[in-house]
UniProtKB/TrEMBL annotation:
<keyword id="KW-1133">Transmembrane helix</keyword>
<dbReference type="InterPro" id="IPR000073">
    <property type="entry name" value="AB_hydrolase_1"/>
</dbReference>
<keyword id="KW-0472">Membrane</keyword>
<dbReference type="InterPro" id="IPR029058">
    <property type="entry name" value="AB_hydrolase_fold"/>
</dbReference>
<dbReference type="Pfam" id="PF00561">
    <property type="entry name" value="Abhydrolase_1"/>
</dbReference>
<feature type="transmembrane region" description="Helical">
    <location>
        <begin position="12"/>
        <end position="31"/>
    </location>
</feature>
<dbReference type="InterPro" id="IPR050471">
    <property type="entry name" value="AB_hydrolase"/>
</dbReference>
<feature type="domain" description="AB hydrolase-1">
    <location>
        <begin position="69"/>
        <end position="302"/>
    </location>
</feature>
<keyword id="KW-0812">Transmembrane</keyword>
<protein>
    <submittedName>
        <fullName>Pimeloyl-ACP methyl ester carboxylesterase</fullName>
    </submittedName>
</protein>
Length: 335
Protein backbone atom coordinates (compact mmCIF):
# COMPACT_ATOMS: atom_id res chain seq x y z
CA UNK A 1 0.00 0.00 0.00
CA UNK A 2 2.83 2.37 0.90
CA UNK A 3 4.49 1.60 -2.42
CA UNK A 4 1.27 2.45 -4.32
CA UNK A 5 0.89 5.74 -2.43
CA UNK A 6 4.50 6.58 -3.16
CA UNK A 7 4.01 5.96 -6.87
CA UNK A 8 0.86 8.09 -6.95
CA UNK A 9 2.67 10.87 -5.13
CA UNK A 10 5.56 10.72 -7.55
CA UNK A 11 3.23 10.81 -10.54
CA UNK A 12 1.41 13.83 -9.10
CA UNK A 13 4.71 15.60 -8.49
CA UNK A 14 5.78 14.91 -12.07
CA UNK A 15 2.46 16.26 -13.39
CA UNK A 16 2.80 19.34 -11.18
CA UNK A 17 6.40 19.95 -12.27
CA UNK A 18 5.40 19.52 -15.91
CA UNK A 19 2.50 21.95 -15.50
CA UNK A 20 4.77 24.53 -13.87
CA UNK A 21 7.30 24.11 -16.68
CA UNK A 22 4.64 24.60 -19.36
CA UNK A 23 3.35 27.68 -17.53
CA UNK A 24 6.84 29.17 -17.29
CA UNK A 25 7.45 28.52 -20.98
CA UNK A 26 4.12 30.13 -21.88
CA UNK A 27 4.96 33.20 -19.81
CA UNK A 28 8.44 33.45 -21.30
CA UNK A 29 7.03 33.28 -24.83
CA UNK A 30 4.12 35.67 -24.34
CA UNK A 31 5.08 38.20 -21.68
CA UNK A 32 7.26 40.42 -23.88
CA UNK A 33 4.40 40.87 -26.37
CA UNK A 34 1.97 41.48 -23.51
CA UNK A 35 4.27 44.07 -21.94
CA UNK A 36 4.69 45.92 -25.24
CA UNK A 37 0.91 45.96 -25.76
CA UNK A 38 0.22 47.34 -22.27
CA UNK A 39 2.95 49.98 -22.49
CA UNK A 40 1.69 51.27 -25.83
CA UNK A 41 -1.96 51.21 -24.75
CA UNK A 42 -1.23 53.08 -21.53
CA UNK A 43 0.60 55.84 -23.42
CA UNK A 44 -2.28 56.11 -25.86
CA UNK A 45 -4.90 56.28 -23.11
CA UNK A 46 -3.13 59.14 -21.33
CA UNK A 47 -2.42 61.07 -24.51
CA UNK A 48 -5.89 60.91 -26.05
CA UNK A 49 -8.16 62.05 -23.20
CA UNK A 50 -8.88 64.98 -20.91
CA UNK A 51 -10.36 65.30 -17.42
CA UNK A 52 -13.24 67.65 -16.61
CA UNK A 53 -13.87 68.37 -12.93
CA UNK A 54 -17.57 68.68 -12.15
CA UNK A 55 -19.71 68.73 -9.03
CA UNK A 56 -20.73 65.20 -10.04
CA UNK A 57 -17.17 63.89 -10.02
CA UNK A 58 -14.22 63.96 -12.41
CA UNK A 59 -15.15 62.80 -15.87
CA UNK A 60 -12.64 61.61 -18.45
CA UNK A 61 -13.52 62.29 -22.06
CA UNK A 62 -12.16 62.50 -25.58
CA UNK A 63 -13.41 64.31 -28.67
CA UNK A 64 -12.75 63.06 -32.18
CA UNK A 65 -13.98 64.06 -35.63
CA UNK A 66 -16.22 66.83 -36.87
CA UNK A 67 -19.88 67.16 -37.79
CA UNK A 68 -23.01 66.41 -35.80
CA UNK A 69 -22.15 65.86 -32.11
CA UNK A 70 -22.63 62.32 -30.81
CA UNK A 71 -22.33 61.56 -27.09
CA UNK A 72 -20.96 58.02 -26.83
CA UNK A 73 -21.68 56.17 -23.58
CA UNK A 74 -19.80 52.88 -23.36
CA UNK A 75 -20.68 49.54 -21.84
CA UNK A 76 -19.23 47.41 -19.05
CA UNK A 77 -15.50 46.84 -19.34
CA UNK A 78 -15.17 49.93 -21.50
CA UNK A 79 -14.01 53.51 -21.23
CA UNK A 80 -13.79 56.51 -23.52
CA UNK A 81 -11.64 54.44 -25.89
CA UNK A 82 -14.40 51.86 -26.30
CA UNK A 83 -16.85 54.67 -27.03
CA UNK A 84 -14.63 56.03 -29.81
CA UNK A 85 -14.30 52.54 -31.26
CA UNK A 86 -18.06 52.03 -31.16
CA UNK A 87 -18.53 55.37 -32.90
CA UNK A 88 -16.19 54.34 -35.70
CA UNK A 89 -17.86 50.95 -36.07
CA UNK A 90 -21.49 52.11 -36.05
CA UNK A 91 -21.28 55.58 -37.57
CA UNK A 92 -18.15 56.11 -39.66
CA UNK A 93 -16.28 59.40 -39.91
CA UNK A 94 -18.93 62.08 -40.42
CA UNK A 95 -19.65 62.85 -36.76
CA UNK A 96 -18.06 64.61 -33.81
CA UNK A 97 -17.72 61.89 -31.19
CA UNK A 98 -17.72 62.97 -27.56
CA UNK A 99 -16.81 59.85 -25.64
CA UNK A 100 -16.77 59.57 -21.86
CA UNK A 101 -15.37 57.15 -19.32
CA UNK A 102 -18.21 56.45 -16.92
CA UNK A 103 -17.76 56.28 -13.14
CA UNK A 104 -14.85 54.03 -12.15
CA UNK A 105 -13.56 53.47 -15.67
CA UNK A 106 -9.99 54.48 -16.48
CA UNK A 107 -9.48 57.98 -15.00
CA UNK A 108 -13.08 58.83 -14.08
CA UNK A 109 -13.65 58.86 -10.33
CA UNK A 110 -16.51 57.27 -8.40
CA UNK A 111 -18.10 59.98 -6.23
CA UNK A 112 -19.85 59.28 -2.95
CA UNK A 113 -23.41 58.04 -3.45
CA UNK A 114 -22.79 57.48 -7.17
CA UNK A 115 -25.98 56.77 -9.09
CA UNK A 116 -27.21 56.50 -12.65
CA UNK A 117 -28.86 59.91 -12.29
CA UNK A 118 -25.68 61.52 -10.97
CA UNK A 119 -23.69 59.96 -13.81
CA UNK A 120 -26.08 61.39 -16.38
CA UNK A 121 -25.95 64.81 -14.74
CA UNK A 122 -22.20 64.94 -15.37
CA UNK A 123 -22.80 64.83 -19.12
CA UNK A 124 -24.45 68.27 -19.11
CA UNK A 125 -21.42 70.27 -17.90
CA UNK A 126 -19.29 68.26 -20.31
CA UNK A 127 -21.44 69.33 -23.27
CA UNK A 128 -21.51 72.88 -21.89
CA UNK A 129 -17.70 72.97 -21.74
CA UNK A 130 -17.56 71.94 -25.38
CA UNK A 131 -20.23 74.46 -26.46
CA UNK A 132 -22.51 71.65 -27.64
CA UNK A 133 -26.20 72.51 -27.31
CA UNK A 134 -27.68 69.22 -28.57
CA UNK A 135 -26.24 65.81 -29.29
CA UNK A 136 -27.27 62.40 -30.50
CA UNK A 137 -26.93 60.17 -27.42
CA UNK A 138 -25.78 56.57 -27.80
CA UNK A 139 -26.00 54.09 -24.93
CA UNK A 140 -24.43 50.67 -25.41
CA UNK A 141 -24.89 47.79 -22.95
CA UNK A 142 -24.40 49.12 -19.39
CA UNK A 143 -24.22 52.63 -20.87
CA UNK A 144 -27.94 52.43 -21.58
CA UNK A 145 -29.18 53.56 -18.14
CA UNK A 146 -27.31 56.88 -17.98
CA UNK A 147 -28.00 57.54 -21.68
CA UNK A 148 -31.74 57.11 -21.11
CA UNK A 149 -31.59 59.11 -17.89
CA UNK A 150 -29.89 62.00 -19.70
CA UNK A 151 -32.47 61.96 -22.50
CA UNK A 152 -35.21 62.00 -19.88
CA UNK A 153 -33.77 64.73 -17.64
CA UNK A 154 -32.40 66.99 -20.40
CA UNK A 155 -34.71 66.50 -23.39
CA UNK A 156 -33.62 69.81 -24.92
CA UNK A 157 -30.02 68.54 -25.08
CA UNK A 158 -30.80 65.21 -26.76
CA UNK A 159 -31.68 65.27 -30.47
CA UNK A 160 -31.99 61.47 -30.73
CA UNK A 161 -31.42 58.45 -28.52
CA UNK A 162 -30.03 55.11 -29.70
CA UNK A 163 -29.81 52.10 -27.38
CA UNK A 164 -27.76 49.12 -28.59
CA UNK A 165 -27.78 45.86 -26.60
CA UNK A 166 -28.59 48.17 -23.72
CA UNK A 167 -29.54 47.62 -20.10
CA UNK A 168 -32.84 49.29 -19.15
CA UNK A 169 -33.60 47.90 -15.68
CA UNK A 170 -32.21 45.78 -12.88
CA UNK A 171 -31.26 42.14 -13.56
CA UNK A 172 -33.70 40.30 -15.83
CA UNK A 173 -34.36 36.53 -15.57
CA UNK A 174 -32.53 35.74 -18.82
CA UNK A 175 -29.42 37.85 -18.15
CA UNK A 176 -26.05 36.13 -17.80
CA UNK A 177 -25.97 33.82 -14.77
CA UNK A 178 -24.13 35.41 -11.80
CA UNK A 179 -21.71 32.45 -11.76
CA UNK A 180 -20.41 33.37 -15.21
CA UNK A 181 -20.39 37.07 -14.37
CA UNK A 182 -18.12 36.12 -11.47
CA UNK A 183 -15.73 34.46 -13.93
CA UNK A 184 -15.65 37.67 -15.96
CA UNK A 185 -14.85 39.66 -12.81
CA UNK A 186 -12.01 37.30 -11.95
CA UNK A 187 -10.48 37.69 -15.42
CA UNK A 188 -10.93 41.47 -15.25
CA UNK A 189 -8.62 41.77 -12.26
CA UNK A 190 -5.59 40.46 -14.14
CA UNK A 191 -4.36 42.38 -17.19
CA UNK A 192 -2.10 39.51 -18.18
CA UNK A 193 -4.83 36.91 -17.63
CA UNK A 194 -7.26 38.90 -19.78
CA UNK A 195 -4.61 39.36 -22.48
CA UNK A 196 -3.91 35.60 -22.57
CA UNK A 197 -7.63 34.75 -22.80
CA UNK A 198 -8.23 37.24 -25.62
CA UNK A 199 -5.27 35.88 -27.57
CA UNK A 200 -5.88 32.16 -27.28
CA UNK A 201 -9.48 31.65 -26.16
CA UNK A 202 -11.50 34.21 -28.13
CA UNK A 203 -14.69 32.13 -28.48
CA UNK A 204 -14.71 31.46 -24.72
CA UNK A 205 -14.34 35.08 -23.62
CA UNK A 206 -16.82 36.24 -26.28
CA UNK A 207 -19.35 33.69 -25.00
CA UNK A 208 -18.90 35.14 -21.51
CA UNK A 209 -19.41 38.62 -22.97
CA UNK A 210 -22.66 37.71 -24.64
CA UNK A 211 -21.74 36.43 -28.11
CA UNK A 212 -22.75 32.74 -28.37
CA UNK A 213 -20.08 30.40 -29.71
CA UNK A 214 -22.35 29.22 -32.52
CA UNK A 215 -22.75 32.85 -33.60
CA UNK A 216 -18.98 33.44 -33.48
CA UNK A 217 -18.44 30.37 -35.65
CA UNK A 218 -20.50 32.01 -38.41
CA UNK A 219 -18.41 35.22 -38.39
CA UNK A 220 -16.69 36.16 -41.61
CA UNK A 221 -13.06 37.46 -41.45
CA UNK A 222 -14.18 41.10 -41.06
CA UNK A 223 -16.50 40.23 -38.18
CA UNK A 224 -13.79 38.19 -36.45
CA UNK A 225 -11.44 41.15 -36.81
CA UNK A 226 -14.08 43.41 -35.24
CA UNK A 227 -14.52 40.94 -32.40
CA UNK A 228 -10.76 40.96 -31.75
CA UNK A 229 -10.72 44.77 -31.87
CA UNK A 230 -13.56 44.84 -29.34
CA UNK A 231 -11.50 42.66 -27.00
CA UNK A 232 -8.26 44.57 -27.58
CA UNK A 233 -9.78 48.00 -26.94
CA UNK A 234 -10.47 46.94 -23.34
CA UNK A 235 -6.76 46.71 -22.41
CA UNK A 236 -5.72 47.21 -19.64
CA UNK A 237 -8.74 45.49 -18.20
CA UNK A 238 -7.90 45.97 -14.51
CA UNK A 239 -8.45 49.74 -14.87
CA UNK A 240 -12.08 49.03 -15.79
CA UNK A 241 -12.88 46.59 -13.00
CA UNK A 242 -14.04 49.14 -10.41
CA UNK A 243 -16.36 50.68 -12.99
CA UNK A 244 -17.92 47.31 -13.75
CA UNK A 245 -18.56 46.62 -10.06
CA UNK A 246 -19.97 50.14 -9.62
CA UNK A 247 -22.28 49.56 -12.60
CA UNK A 248 -23.80 46.56 -10.87
CA UNK A 249 -24.41 48.58 -7.69
CA UNK A 250 -26.02 51.47 -9.57
CA UNK A 251 -28.14 49.36 -11.90
CA UNK A 252 -29.36 46.83 -9.33
CA UNK A 253 -32.60 48.70 -8.64
CA UNK A 254 -32.69 50.87 -11.78
CA UNK A 255 -35.74 51.36 -13.98
CA UNK A 256 -36.04 53.45 -17.13
CA UNK A 257 -37.15 57.03 -16.37
CA UNK A 258 -39.04 57.62 -19.58
CA UNK A 259 -41.85 60.04 -18.82
CA UNK A 260 -39.92 63.01 -20.16
CA UNK A 261 -38.05 61.39 -23.08
CA UNK A 262 -39.16 63.38 -26.13
CA UNK A 263 -36.45 62.57 -28.66
CA UNK A 264 -36.96 59.90 -31.32
CA UNK A 265 -35.45 56.70 -29.98
CA UNK A 266 -34.08 53.61 -31.72
CA UNK A 267 -33.65 50.42 -29.69
CA UNK A 268 -31.60 47.59 -31.23
CA UNK A 269 -31.09 44.20 -29.61
CA UNK A 270 -30.55 40.55 -30.49
CA UNK A 271 -32.71 37.76 -29.12
CA UNK A 272 -29.63 35.53 -28.67
CA UNK A 273 -27.77 38.08 -26.54
CA UNK A 274 -26.69 35.90 -23.62
CA UNK A 275 -25.30 38.75 -21.50
CA UNK A 276 -28.12 41.33 -21.53
CA UNK A 277 -31.49 39.75 -22.28
CA UNK A 278 -33.60 41.32 -25.03
CA UNK A 279 -36.24 41.79 -22.30
CA UNK A 280 -34.32 44.98 -21.52
CA UNK A 281 -35.06 46.24 -25.03
CA UNK A 282 -38.73 45.38 -24.75
CA UNK A 283 -38.89 47.11 -21.38
CA UNK A 284 -37.33 50.30 -22.77
CA UNK A 285 -39.61 50.26 -25.80
CA UNK A 286 -42.72 49.87 -23.66
CA UNK A 287 -41.75 52.89 -21.57
CA UNK A 288 -40.32 55.28 -24.16
CA UNK A 289 -43.19 56.74 -26.17
CA UNK A 290 -41.40 57.74 -29.37
CA UNK A 291 -39.28 54.63 -29.72
CA UNK A 292 -38.80 51.99 -32.36
CA UNK A 293 -37.68 48.53 -31.31
CA UNK A 294 -35.74 46.37 -33.77
CA UNK A 295 -35.06 42.82 -32.60
CA UNK A 296 -32.69 40.53 -34.52
CA UNK A 297 -32.98 36.78 -34.14
CA UNK A 298 -29.18 36.54 -34.03
CA UNK A 299 -26.40 39.01 -33.40
CA UNK A 300 -25.22 38.40 -29.87
CA UNK A 301 -24.23 41.18 -27.52
CA UNK A 302 -23.01 44.18 -29.48
CA UNK A 303 -24.59 43.13 -32.79
CA UNK A 304 -21.25 42.29 -34.43
CA UNK A 305 -22.74 39.63 -36.72
CA UNK A 306 -25.37 42.14 -37.88
CA UNK A 307 -23.00 45.08 -38.26
CA UNK A 308 -23.80 45.99 -41.87
CA UNK A 309 -27.53 45.87 -41.24
CA UNK A 310 -27.19 47.81 -37.98
CA UNK A 311 -25.15 50.55 -39.66
CA UNK A 312 -27.84 51.02 -42.30
CA UNK A 313 -30.55 50.97 -39.64
CA UNK A 314 -28.80 53.67 -37.62
CA UNK A 315 -28.17 55.77 -40.74
CA UNK A 316 -31.80 55.57 -41.86
CA UNK A 317 -33.02 56.37 -38.36
CA UNK A 318 -30.83 59.45 -38.05
CA UNK A 319 -31.80 60.69 -41.49
CA UNK A 320 -35.46 60.25 -40.62
CA UNK A 321 -35.25 61.72 -37.13
CA UNK A 322 -33.40 64.74 -38.47
CA UNK A 323 -35.63 65.44 -41.47
CA UNK A 324 -39.04 64.74 -39.95
CA UNK A 325 -38.95 63.30 -36.46
CA UNK A 326 -42.70 63.62 -35.94
CA UNK A 327 -43.32 60.77 -38.35
CA UNK A 328 -41.09 58.32 -36.52
CA UNK A 329 -42.99 55.08 -35.93
CA UNK A 330 -43.03 53.03 -32.75
CA UNK A 331 -44.08 49.59 -34.01
CA UNK A 332 -41.61 46.82 -33.04
CA UNK A 333 -39.81 44.97 -35.83
CA UNK A 334 -38.34 41.48 -35.85
CA UNK A 335 -35.48 40.83 -38.24
Amino acid sequence: MKEVKSRVRNILLIVLAFSILITLILIALTYPDYNDTMTEKQKQLLADSNILQTEYGDIEYAVKGGGTPVLMIHGAGGGYDQGLWLGKVFFGDDYKFISVSRYGYLRSSIPNNASVKMQSEAYKPLLDSLNVDRAIVIGVSAGGPSATQFANDYPDRCSALILISAVSMGPAPDDKDPFYVGIIHTIQQSDYGYWIVTRFFQPTILELMGIPTDVYETFDPEQKELAQEMLDVMHPMSQRYEGTINDERMIRSYTVPADNVSSPTLIIHAKDDVLVSYKHAENAHNKIARSQLVLYDTGGHGMLSQMDSTRLLVKDFLNGSTSNSTNYVSEPQDI
